[in-house]
């Protein structure tokens, strides 16, 4: 019976693959990636506002410091909130900050908005919902908890698939943590493992009001089409909103698409106007008086040397921006350029695999060795997932060897005693450069799920600043230092033995993990 339930997701219709339209990179100008602003808003900032973090402990401490310092808003989007002591400490920090806001003179300014996935956040008797209900009860006017439910889990499928397995159909996978005008982008969830010994990536964008506004609006938009957690642990949709699994699926997806695209397009228009205004005021003929006035008031911002592009992927809603940008970056990467790509779950889409194997850049792909895979040692069927990843990795490596691309495309396995690996993203080094000028950081894993099933967001950070490029380079080096190069002998080791049933089942279920 459990095998049948595992295969039940196959009843959902396949999604057609749509590849990115051709788009050539702009070779001149401020930087060669300005074509991205044709799709999403471009936020120009000073590199001094960007800080790359390196450890789970640093990430956790920063979350607590930022929550305590927040005055206007705390917006947190994650897959789930864990139920341990460290997570309770985060909730306590929120309560303390809300209490302070309540006691301040006048009406409280602080608003807290939390977006989680419905299925993952409802797993078990003690779960994300039960952790947050006390905040809803104590501060009903200031706290909002939204639980996204994929429109693809409905009807008979929803009744058949048990807890945990229902998470294979689609999730809210975005990880954004913002506090007033400070934004943390990461692949890490709000759970004790991610605060202690589960390696991920994290970047802090300080004093970036436009970026904070964008992600606040994005989380609000997804929140509006999500179930709202109530004080009695029930959920309900906002008035007039189509239900994600009881209502009409097409109507729901159209509304969700409209809400999210409104956020992207309005921010893009705002940033274009701002860019035009800044450009004209910086021209030789611009008023000297207005410039002097700006200097006097201290409001003149430093010239941006770093650009942030939010990349959104929500295939259930027909939004494929991240996929288009990633495919274009892989397509256009020149000969002798180097791309360092990392994922905790190596299960690339066919399109990404074809581009890596068929283009000219050098690739160094970092993935989890079986013992640092998040599913290592799991009970039941889930315990076989690391073996399935080994099988997928071996197939890809065999293809690399068959095409005689071992020099150009290299696989490396992250291994660290007592740790698991969850880092994802890429660093792009242009030909002849020792430092990266672009990185992608956020929630996508470059796999089928990220492209087709889940809600994802990451940012492309493009920088001309050497100090920030050095920070990104050190981040990449630090991760790759804990790895070994994959060779034919890797798959001959006893711990890489893959059982026949895993080999047979993997092609059927690889689109679900």
SSE topology sketch:
Blueprint: H1 2-7, E1 43-45, E2 50-53, H2 56-69, E3 73-77, H3 85-103, E4 111-117, H4 118-121, H5 128-138, E5 143-148, H6 155-160, E6 176-179, E7 182-186, H7 192-196, E8 198-199, E9 202-205, H8 209-224, E10 227-229, E11 235-236, H9 249-281, H10 288-297, E12 306-314, E13 319-320, H11 321-332, E14 338-343, H12 350-358, E15 362-368, H13 385-402, E16 409-414, E17 420-421, E18 425-429, E19 438-442, H14 448-453, E20 456-463, H15 466-481, E21 483-485, H16 500-509
Parallel strand pairs: 3-4, 4-5, 8-17, 14-15, 15-16
Antiparallel strand pairs: 1-12, 2-9, 3-6, 5-10, 6-7, 7-9, 10-11, 12-13, 12-20, 14-18, 16-21, 18-19, 19-20
What does the model show?
- One of its GO terms (molecular function) is ATP binding.
- Belongs to the CDP-alcohol phosphatidyltransferase class-II family.
- Functions in the biosynthesis of the anionic phospholipids phosphatidylglycerol and cardiolipin.
- This protein is an alpha+beta fold and 513 residues long.
- The chain contains 16 helices and 21 strands.
- It folds into 2 domains: 227 residues, Endonuclease, Chain A, CATH 3.30.870.10; 208 residues, Endonuclease, Chain A (2-Layer Sandwich).
């Amino acid at each position: 019976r459990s095998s049948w339930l595992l295969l039940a997701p196959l009843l959902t219709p396949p999604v057609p693959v749509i590849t990115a339209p051709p788009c050539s990179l702009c070779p001149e100008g401020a930087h060669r990636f300005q074509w991205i602003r044709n799709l999403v808003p471009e936020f120009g900032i000073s590199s001094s506002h960007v800080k790359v973090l390196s450890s789970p402990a640093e990430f956790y401490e920063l979350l607590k410091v930022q929550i305590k310092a927040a005055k206007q808003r705390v917006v947190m989007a994650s897959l789930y909130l864990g139920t341990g002591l460290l997570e309770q400490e985060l909730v306590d920090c929120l309560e303390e900050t809300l209490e302070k806001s309540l006691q301040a003179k006048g009406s409280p300014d602080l608003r807290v908005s939390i977006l989680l996935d419905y299925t993952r956040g409802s797993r078990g008797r003690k779960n994300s919902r039960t952790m947050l209900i006390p905040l809803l009860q104590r501060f009903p006017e200031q706290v909002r908890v939204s639980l996204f439910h994929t429109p693809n889990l409905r009807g008979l499928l929803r009744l058949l698939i048990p807890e945990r397995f229902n998470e294979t159909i689609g999730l809210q996978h975005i990880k954004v943590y913002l506090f007033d005008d400070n934004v943390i982008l990461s692949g890490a969830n709000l759970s004790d493992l991610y605060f202690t010994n589960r390696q991920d990536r994290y970047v802090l964008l300080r004093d970036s009001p436009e970026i904070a506004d964008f992600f606040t609006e994005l989380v609000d938009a997804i929140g509006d089409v999500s179930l709202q957690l109530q004080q009695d642990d029930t959920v309900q949709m906002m008035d007039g909103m189509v239900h994600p699994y009881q209502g009409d699926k097409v109507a729901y997806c159209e509304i969700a698409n409209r809400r999210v695209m409104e956020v992207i397009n309005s921010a893009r228009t705002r940033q274009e106007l701002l860019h035009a205004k800044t450009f004209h005021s910086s021209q030789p003929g611009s008023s000297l008086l207005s410039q002097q006035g700006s200097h006097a008031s201290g409001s003149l911002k430093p010239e941006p040397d770093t650009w942030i592009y939010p990349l959104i992927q929500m295939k259930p809603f027909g939004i494929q921006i991240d996929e288009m940008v990633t495919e274009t970056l892989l397509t256009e990467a020149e000969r002798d350029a180097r791309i360092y790509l990392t994922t905790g779950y190596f299960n690339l889409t066919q399109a990404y695999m074809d581009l890596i194997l068929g283009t000219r850049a050098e690739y160094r792909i970092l993935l989890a060795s079986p013992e640092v895979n998040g599913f290592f040692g799991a009970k039941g069927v889930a315990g076989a997932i690391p073996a399935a990843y080994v099988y997928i990795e071996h197939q890809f490596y065999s293809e690399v060897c068959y095409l005689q691309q071992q020099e150009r495309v290299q696989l490396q396995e992250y291994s660290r005693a007592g740790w698991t690996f969850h880092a994802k993203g890429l660093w792009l080094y242009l030909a002849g450069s020792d430092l990266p000028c672009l990185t992608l950081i956020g929630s996508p894993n470059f796999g089928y799920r990220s492209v087709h099933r889940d809600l994802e967001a990451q940012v492309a950070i493009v920088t001309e600043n050497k100090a920030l490029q050095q920070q990104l380079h050190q981040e990449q080096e630090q991760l790759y230092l804990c790895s070994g190069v994959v060779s034919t002998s890797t798959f001959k080791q006893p711990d890489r033995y893959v059982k026949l049933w895993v080999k047979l089942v993997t092609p059927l279920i690889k689109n679900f993990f």
